[in-house]
Amino acid sequence: MATLASLKEKRSARILSFQDDRIASKLLSMGILPGSMIQVVRKLPGRGAIYLKANGYGIALRNHEAASVLLEEQS
Amino acid sequence: MSDNNLPTLALLGNPNCGKSSIFNILTGLRQKVGNFPGVTVDKKVGITKLADQSVKVIDFPGTYSLYPTSKDESIIINTFSNPSDQNYPDVVVYVADVTKLEPQMLLLTQILDLNLPVVLALNMTDLAEETNLTFDEEKLRQELGIPVVAVSGRREENFDKLKEAVFQVYQGINHLDQSHNAFYKLSENEKHIAKEINSVIGSENDYRSLIVAHHYSDLNYLDGSQKSQIEEIVNKFDYNELRGQIDETMARYNRFTPIVKSAVRKSNEEARSFTDKVDRILTHKIAGPIIFFGLMFLVFHAIFSWSSYPMDGIEWMFAEAGTFLKSNLPDAWYTSLLADGVISGLGGVLVFIPQIAILFLLISLLEEIGYMSRAVFMFDNIMQKFGLNGRSIVALISGGACAVPAVMATRTISNWKERLITIMVTPLISCSARIPVYTLLIAFAVPPIMIGGFINAQALMFMGLYLLGIIGALLSAVIFKLILKTEEHSFLMIELPPYRKPNIKNVLLTVREKVEAFIFQAGKVIMIISIILWFLASYGPGQQMEQAREEAIELAQKRDLNEDETEDLIASKQIENSYAGFFGKAIEPTIEPLGFNWQIGIAIITSFAAREVFVGTMATIYSIASKEDDEVTIRNKLVKATDPETGEKVYTVATSVSLLLFYVFAMQCMSTLAVVKRETKSWKWPTIQFFFMGAMAYLSSLIAYQLLS
């Protein structure tokens, strides 16, 4: 299953679902929903934090936080 | 401020919507910082005037929705779902950044569904102009059914209009139909839940009850029986909290997205393009950290160099005031209390102001611009390995100048455990007050030779001491990480807002707030301790002080000393016979294994006021003319110091290294302890800090002395 943590830098994908309620709650609060497009702006080396862009927001998530966000398979 | 009977205006909005600028403009200098009951979340309260009516303005923490993910945000749910809460507003000003209105409609429509009287303030109209964004206030007013006012916090535009609209809503004149169709229509299941919860909490608002169904376990105003009743209801209807939140959020977006689309026209699709370009450099894997350390070096440098003049000025002023009092008041105990206790204590408090002001000036400037969240993003991973947070790096680096403002700067760390560890270990970083002690003692520990012909051994030692402090801080952080338990989940999840011009007024108000907090809260403790230290150094058991004085005068006459030399000898003999001297001698057996004698014991006790006092106390003990108490003079005197019984030199390499290590680790600073007490709101943590740092100091000195002697 593709997760946000496995998405490559500068790539975008559509969110399928959330596996962690807290991360989900925060992203939902920012209007980032299942079906929203999300883009990886930067990934820090060594499983560091990930800089994301979605719904006009810039957001940083830890690697394991991003891993709890499932993505739709890209066609 | 007797503001308890005034009507309450709540400022609410997303983080980074410019809410604090609006708060600052509305309240000006009539504001203070308190705490929300039971939590360490700052509550900013001020007073403003609407027509002739004074109202209390509360600046609530920025939040994205009524589904909180942090302590700060849960304040909002506790207040806004409880009409009998003391902070429950009479009127709400919802602040929204007009350049990204859509996601901010989520919280707005939630608040509206709670039937609160709301005025929408569309902020950052100046930015909208710059980016050619146009918006239709009237359209929004019609669609939302509430007054809408476009303002600019930066240009301070349209605040009269805003106040007028708020006043009308407060009086119920322009309070448009609040029984409008709720923005979110509850599902059948949710309606049943809401109906049953309504009767448990005595609510008439279905949405309020739905929010309670979601958050009941975090709501402080519900009692145990209410909570268990609600739990039963939630279980009976098989309510899925996350599903509910997703459905509600999506339904709201479906409802307000068309409204925003019809009211706001963006001509520039990519509003973040500037931010993106800057971030390509500032968050770069290699350039990013380099730029950060460069900036922090500048901050560090500024604290160091800019603050030295005002600090010298403050010290001079208080020294002069002390001398003035002594020469103009009778030579009595109260003169000494005033001059050596109160005045020097006051000086000891005020001398920190330049450092605190400069640090927060620069830090809040970087915060306002939006840079700090990038630093957090870059260092979070490394800091986490030590049980710290990305934000800890700012405190640790500032600790190199002074731990007092550094500890105050940890407020931005929202996870309590990570914040606490940062507070506990920051004072281990060698601060500027250790420099005089290091300079004085290094000469005894290391000869001034060049290693390999070009590396100065003393400079190497200096660097080694700094490194030791850093290693000590990180290692103890790891230990605290293993010991401290917390239920609170650690998050990064931080917004990286677009870069923008800083609002200088906000920056200056932050500086003022930090300086005041230090003076009025930590200052009290510093005053009390410095009076105690004055007492210990000026009084002795029984008649010892008087006898010491007479003996000193006798001895001076025998040696044919001049007036100044006599004074110095008296001071030296008196401190030896004071309570401080008494304690110094009392702890001698304890510190002997470290290679310290009672003179060093006295200096350790008195330098608790501040580490640099060590140098001055050494000068007094060895009766060095007060005018010449620079490090070189004292050093020359100390070289000659010998043990009267054995005739051996006191400041051997072993003793000096041991003493240096002691000063690297020991918590020799009452001001830091006072600030830690303020920030952790208990004496527990400063006490633990005092003892764990003391233990580190004692053990490392013991090992070093035993190995070297």
Automatic annotation (TrEMBL), chain A:
Q: What span is annotated as the signal peptide, if there is one?
A: none
Name one matching Pfam family.
FeoA
Print the keywords alphabetically: Iron
| Source organism, top-level taxon | Bacteria
The answer to whether the entry has keyword Iron is yes
The answer on whether this UniProt entry bears the keyword Acetylation reads no
What residue stretches are annotated with the Ferrous iron transporter FeoA-like domain?
Answer: 2-73
InterPro entries reported for this sequence: Fe-transptr_FeoA-like (IPR007167), FeoA (IPR052713), FeoA_core_dom (IPR038157), Transcriptional_repressor_C (IPR008988)
Recorded protein name is FeoA family protein
Q: Which organism is it from?
A: Mangrovivirga halotolerans
UniProtKB/TrEMBL annotation, chain B:
Q: How does it sit in the membrane?
A: Multi-pass membrane protein
Q: InterPro entries from the xrefs? A: Fe2_transport_prot-B (IPR003373), Fe2_transport_prot_B_C (IPR011640), FeoB_GTPase (IPR050860), G_FEOB_dom (IPR030389), Gate_dom (IPR011642), GTP-bd (IPR006073), P-loop_NTPase (IPR027417)
Write down the superkingdom of origin.
Answer: Bacteria
Instruction: Please name the Pfam families in this protein's record.
Output: FeoB_C (PF07664), FeoB_N (PF02421), Gate (PF07670)
Question: Which locations, inside or outside the cell, does it occupy?
Answer: Cell inner membrane; Cell membrane
Q: Which residues form the FeoB-type G domain?
A: 6-172
Answer whether the UniProt record assigns the keyword Membrane to this protein: yes
Location, primary (coarse class) = membrane
Q: Does the keyword Cytoplasm apply?
A: no
Q: Which UniProt keywords apply?
A: Cell membrane, GTP-binding, Ion transport, Iron, Iron transport, Membrane, Nucleotide-binding, Transmembrane, Transmembrane helix, Transport
Q: Which residues cross the membrane?
A: 286-307, 342-366, 386-408, 420-447, 459-484, 518-539, 650-676, 688-708
Described function: Probable transporter of a GTP-driven Fe(2+) uptake system.
Q: Which PANTHER family match?
A: FE(2+) TRANSPORTER FEOB (PTHR43185:SF1), FERROUS IRON TRANSPORT PROTEIN B (PTHR43185)
Family per UniProt? Belongs to the TRAFAC class TrmE-Era-EngA-EngB-Septin-like GTPase superfamily. FeoB GTPase (TC 9.A.8) family.
What protein name applies here?
Ferrous iron transport protein B
The source organism is Mangrovivirga halotolerans
